[in-house]
Write a structure and sequence with these properties.
The protein is of the alpha+beta class and about 400 residues long. The chain folds into two domains: about 280 residues, Ribonucleotide Reductase, subunit A (Orthogonal Bundle), CATH 1.10.620; about 90 residues, SCP2 sterol-binding domain (Nonspecific Lipid-transfer Protein, Chain A), CATH 3.30.1050. Strands 3-2-1-4-5 form a five-stranded mixed sheet. Strand 2 and strand 3 form a beta hairpin. Helix 1 runs parallel beside helix 5, helix 3 runs antiparallel to helix 5 and helix 5 runs antiparallel to helix 9. About 40% of the residues are buried.
Length: about 400
């Protein structure tokens, strides 16, 4: 593997940067922020700002709570020391957001627990799912300090949560506050938070498939009300585009470009960043990703997007050597099929006469399986998914889609 940018920075250097960059969350003056918040912000702007600031507040507290098993599992003392400074950073960030919520926005009772409870209703489905996953991996790391578990947890925390979710959100907030020249105390604190986070994004391994469906849904605004970002001059698509660029940049800096990772990557990295962002937003609105949004659309364009994403998720390392045709027979939507031949999957609408396996399944149930909201085994046991074909063909596809 070629030398990466991350290799040029030592743990000692990261620690030294922490010492030089120390700042005091308890000493920020929020007086002018409080005046501007009450006099210059509209009601919608206050609601929208509280929503995205609340995600940061909760997230900073959550990552501070979860860092101790990372420190215990780190194999080198220099890594332990750096992670210890990071835990201090995250606690400082949580104090910063708690103070803003109480002293500027009037949210909470001044305690950390009271502030967190007050902003709980602001948390999105995707946000909650992502941090439940962080809790799960931190708990596993407490029980198993192996390099594999540490690599998984670090990828989720540092690459996905910090680089893909937090950093684009910081840029979004800093940009509109700077353009408007408002909230000077909060703006300066966010600048310090961003500098801290740059030090944190130093590791990166390979936990992608389990997390992407959840993390993609973090930026869905309440009720899909686009005004929550557009009132500050950004579209939802622009935020997703920035997140995608940040994610790829951090992986490349760690020497792990997406195209080099083993196994299928359903993320369409071959498309332009803006096109990828539009695609993800479309899939979220259609319920093909994320929490779900009622009955999934059955129009040709949505189904083409669904099956193209399914095609991208095929693990060709586990595909049978012989040609294989899979047919999806929906009682409530148009049929589609997939052909695998010469290591290349292709999807198309319609029935084929020579399918090796036919899946009889309701369209919404299939979408739930694809989006990770319904476990395939549960769909089989409950009869919602009924495959037909030879035992050999069925066995050959057991791990075709990452199962």
């Amino acid at each position: 593997m070629a030398s990466a940018a991350a290799d040029q920075v030592s743990y000692d250097d990261l620690y030294a940067r922490w010492e030089r960059g120390n700042w005091r969350a308890s000493e920020i003056d929020f007086g002018e922020d409080r005046r501007q918040w009450n006099e210059d912000f509209s009601d919608l702007e206050r609601r929208a700002a509280l929503w995205n600031y609340a995600l940061f507040f909760w997230g900073e507290d959550a990552v501070a709570d979860n860092l101790s098993p990372f420190i215990d599992a780190a194999p080198r003392e220099e890594q332990k020391y750096f992670l210890a400074t990071q835990q201090v950073d995250e606690a400082r960030h949580a104090v910063f957001f708690k103070r803003f919520m109480r002293e500027v926005a009037g949210i909470g009772d001044g305690t950390m627990a009271g502030g967190l409870e007050a902003i709980r209703p602001q948390l999105t489905w995707g946000f909650v799912k992502t941090f439940e996953l962080l809790d799960k991996h931190a708990a596993e790391l407490r029980r198993d300090r192996s390099r594999t578990k540490l690599a998984q947890a670090v990828t989720l925390y540092h690459v996905l949560i910090e680089a893909t979710l937090a950093q684009p959100g910081q840029h979004f907030i800093e940009d509109y506050l700077t353009r408007r020249d408002v909230l000077p105390g909060f703006r300066g604190g966010m600048r310090n938070v961003a500098l801290d986070e740059q030090r944190h994004i130093g590791f990166g391994v390979k936990l992608l498939r389990e997390v992407l469906p959840y993390s993609a849904a973090v930026f869905v605004p309440p009720g899909w009300d686009r005004r929550y970002s557009e009132c500050f001059g950004f579209t939802v698509e622009e935020i997703f585009e920035e997140a995608g660029r940040s994610f790829e940049t951090k992986l490349r800096a760690a020497g792990l470009p997406l195209e080099s990772l083993p196994g299928p990557i359903p993320y369409p990295y071959d498309l332009a960043p803006a096109e990828r962002a539009t695609r993800v937003v479309t899939m979220l609105k259609a319920g093909l990703l994320g929490e779900g949004n009622g009955a999934a659309p059955r129009d040709p364009a949505t189904m083409e997007l669904l099956f193209d994403s399914l095609r991208r998720g095929v693990d060709l390392r586990r595909a049978p050597a012989a040609p294989l045709t899979l047919q999806w027979d929906f009682p409530d939507a148009s049929p589609w099929h997939m052909r695998l031949q010469d290591g290349r999957p292709a999807v198309a609408p319609g029935f084929v006469a020579d399918a090796d396996i036919t899946y009889r399944v309701g369209y919404d149930d299939f979408v739930d399986v694809f989006a990770g909201r319904l476990a395939p085994l549960r769909a089989l046991v409950t009869g919602r998914l009924r495959p037909r074909g030879s035992p050999r063909a069925l066995w050959s596809t057991r791990r075709l889609f990452g199962g």
